[in-house]
Structure formats: C-alpha cells, structure tokens
Design brief:
The protein has eight helices and seven strands, in the order βααββααβαβαββαα. By secondary structure, it is of the alpha/beta class. The strands form two sheets. A four-stranded mixed beta sheet has the order 2-3-1-4, covered by helices on one side. Strands 5-6-7 form a three-stranded parallel beta sheet. The chain is globular.
Length: 203
C-alpha cells in the first residue's frame, strides 16, 4: 500500500529527526495558505512519503501562542489536503498528545481515529478524558495500548496491545523491518490488519 505520513505535532515535531530530513517546506505553512503540494511531500521509499512539521523555534512558538481564530480556514485547507492526497491508500496524521485546535481539526477530517496510550494510570485517565471530549465525533475510534508490561483490565475496549520491549529503538529503517518476528512487530501487524479492515470514504 502507498502511505503518506504527516507530522501534525507542531509543538514538538520529531519526524524530521526520525527520517533525517530537513530544510524543506513544512506543513505548517501549507495549512495557513494552501497552494499546492510541490516541495511538501518527501519520498522516503517507493510506498512511503512524509510531510514534516517545522522544527524552527519561531514556528513552534507561533503554534503555542495560536488561538482559535483562523482555525476554520485551517479546517478547509485540511479538507483540501485530504483531497490532494487521494493517490495514497492511507494518510496517517500523527498529532500532538492531548487536544489542540489543530488536532481536533485533524480528527474531524479523519476516517478512523487511533488513540494510543501507555498502560499506566496517568495515560489511561487522559485517554478517558479524550474519549469523553470526542464522543460527539462519530468517526470510528480504536484504542491502542502501547508498552504493555502486564495484562491490565480496563473499562475501555482495547483494540490492540503492543508489548513493552527494550529492543525497540526509534530510528529508520523501521523496527518491524529489522525484527519481523518480534512480539512488538506482531502487535503492530495486528493493528495494521485491523485498520485495513475498515472501509474508508472516497475523496
């Protein structure tokens, strides 16, 4: 499948470090004034492209100070961006933890929402709040527990549990490519198969 991964964590962008890419056009400016995708899409491999959030400290400060004015325009640009990316089988938007105007806009244009949390009290409490705040968004939602050390009993339905492992390193090439038989890889593959089972809207 052809995949586009978008860094939507404007306050703490990280994909530019993960993929070792910098000095390109950033998705921040695309949302503020949509033109075209030239220069924004970075091809990582034949089936994977990324769009990066700006790591520039001034851009990060701007995002922290941002209020809700202009967010309707951002939502409109997001809808247009989704349409422009119609050649991809999947578009994954990696948002900031918690809620912000930008992440809420991303949820509104999504066909499937994945909430990822660690299996500890703080994350679970935050997850419960997120689910309550977004309950009126009718988009299908899946809960993924990450870094699970032992079985936990929750009132929240959990789609996939990914075990904790010291073997995991956050670098490229992907862990699952280097360790195809690892338990973490198996958990991610279960999540991928579950995601692929959903019927997504056409553009």
């Amino acid at each position: 499948n052809k995949v586009c991964l978008i860094d939507f964590d404007f306050r703490a962008p990280s994909l530019h470090v993960f993929f070792g890419k910098d000095g390109v056009k950033y998705v921040n400016e695309l949302l503020d004034g949509f033109t075209n995708l030239k220069g924004y899409l970075i091809e990582i491999s034949e089936n994977l492209s990324v769009m990066l959030a700006s790591p520039n400290p001034e851009d990060i400060k701007k995002e922290i100070r941002r209020d809700d004015r202009g967010e309707m325009r951002v939502l409109e640009n997001l809808i247009r961006l989704k349409s422009e990316l119609k050649d991809f089988d999947y578009v994954i938007v990696d948002t900031t933890p918690g809620l912000s105007y930008r992440s809420l806009n991303a949820l509104l244009v999504s066909d499937l929402i994945l909430f990822v949390a660690r299996a500890d009290k703080l994350d679970i409490k935050g997850l419960e709040t997120l689910l309550d705040v977004t309950k009126n968004i009718k988009t299908p939602k899946l809960v993924v527990l990450n870094r699970v050390i032992k079985k936990v009993n929750l009132s929240i339905p959990v789609a996939v549990e990914i075990p904790c492992s010291c073997d995991v390193s956050m670098d490229y090439p992907f862990f699952i490519e280097r360790f195809p038989h690892h338990d973490v890889t198996k958990g991610i593959e279960r999540l991928a198969e579950l995601t692929k089972s959903f019927k997504f809207s056409s553009y």
